[in-house]
Every structure is written in structure tokens, then in C-alpha cells.
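ok so dumb question maybe but i'm new to this and my supervisor (M.) told me to 'just get the structure for ATP-binding protein' and walked off. so i did the thing. is this what she meant?? sequence i used:
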Amino acid sequence: MAKADYIVSLIKSHYNNEPERFTTMALQIAAHEAKLGHTLVANEIKNIIDKTKEAKNKTKAFASDLQGLILENVPAVNLADMIASEDIKSKINRIISEFVQRDKLRKHDLENRRKILLSGPPGTGKTLTASIIANELNLPLYTILMDKMVTKFMGETSAKLRQVFDLIEHRQGVYLFDEFDAIGGERSRDNDVGEMRRVLNSFLQFIERDNSESLIIAITNNKALLDQALFRRFDDVILYNLPSIDEKRALLKNRLVQFTKKIKFDDLLPNINGLSHAEISLACIDAIKETILNEKQPMNNQLILRTIKDRNAAYHK
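this is what came out, is it supposed to look like this??
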């Protein structure tokens, strides 16, 4: 993008009252200046943004009906910190790239990916992905607690859902619908109740009509449970799996980096079966805690194998 285009986009975002887009364009200008060798200018722009980021991301009060249903977070995790397959990283990069360059896409009557479905076993990086996208785009992350959204009162859940989509339209951010199975179940199931079918129909209508500047991310542990009508409403579906051998090794080395000389990582790999990314990380943390609290317990393969065994017993009886 030429420098003049950056300036035009900055002016547009200012007068359209789009502070998030203004920040995105400012970061692009900083990157452009850095490539030209103007490091002082680039660093000054980044410092200004960093100093104001915390203030810009302060929690704003939600409507009384939504209190306790939405959590706001200020993520601080980067894509480079994520251990996942190259396919998943590539798809996350594509979402980020399309958002940053959405003006370029719109010139060709195309829209960036904004409605994303993440599916896979617990602990494989789905929630982490939403945090990464929010942080990389300098947007707040709003998590909608679906278990609290669903109520026994006729029509109340749909009414709350309408308020959430009004918020999505008027307050730009990354909106995470966690435990999406709560409303996204197959409508034809015999044990489904009429109220939940109405809620799902409402969601389908809201997400199809949504033309906001926000990103919508829904998470499910099993996409087979979801109504098939949902899939065409999402721009992208990313599937997560338990870690591969290479990912297991990377997770162990990442968590136990200060003990690399004391551990034979390849000897541990055959014993890590069925554990998710999060569970492997927790097993490593358990081992680190034990070496800190028990001076007689050195870090070694036996200790890590024991904490891995404990995690397996806890999660996979």
C-alpha cells in the first residue's frame, strides 16, 4: 500500500469513529517506515500505541441484562508462541492478514473472514487461538458464557442473544462463543426442546445478518453435534487434533527449557498418548513445582513420567 493510501485510510478511520482500525493502520505505517530504514519513526509510533493500549482496552460496562454473561480480556499471547500444526498456523495467519487488509478486499467486492468455527478436543488450542487473533489485531476479547446464556424461560435466551449481536455491531472486538454446543445442536434431534430450536434459529438469523467490523469465533469440542445449517454461516472452519510427535517434543522443550541438559525428551514421547497440548503443559508445570518445593527432588525423566501418569489418570480414566 502506498504511503498516500495509508494516510487516506487513517483519515477515514478517524472520521468514521473506528479507533481499532486507526490503530491497525498506524501499525502498518510503522512497519512500512521500518522497512524503509526509518527505525526511529517506526519505534515512536509503536511506543505511542503501546502506551495507550491499556487505557483503550479498559473494560466498559455492559448492559445490565448482559452482566455476568460476557467476560472481557486483554490478551497478551502471540502467534509465534503457539505450538500447533503449520496448517492451523497458516489459517490463523490468513484470518489476521485478511482483517488487516480488508479495505483492499472490499475494493474487489470481497469480505475478510470474520465468522470462524473452531472444533477439536479440549485443550488443543481453540481458546488460545481466539486470544492470539485478538492480540495480533489489537482488539479486546469478549467471551460469551453460553452456559449462562441459556435459561429456562421462554424467549429469554433469544432476547439475550439479540443484545449480544447488538454489542457485536456497536463495539468492535473478537467475540468468542465458548461451549457453542449449548445452542448449536442438531435441530432434528428427538430429545431437543422447542425453545432450543428457536434459539438456534435466532442465532442463524443473527450471524447471517451480521455485517459488523467484529470477528465472531465459535468453539465446539465435537462438530458432529452441530446443526449442519451452521456450517455455511461460517467463513472458515479450523479443526484441531491432539498433538503430533513433533508438537509433543516442542511442548516439552518449551515448558522445560531450563532443564534441557537433564532430560532426554525423545524417551518421554512414547509415554505421552492421549494427552492434549494443555495437559502436557500442566504435567510439565507439575514437575517444575515439585523440584522447587522439594529440594531433594531433581528434575529428571522419572519425575516428568510420574506427572504425565498423574494427568492421564485424572483426565483419561
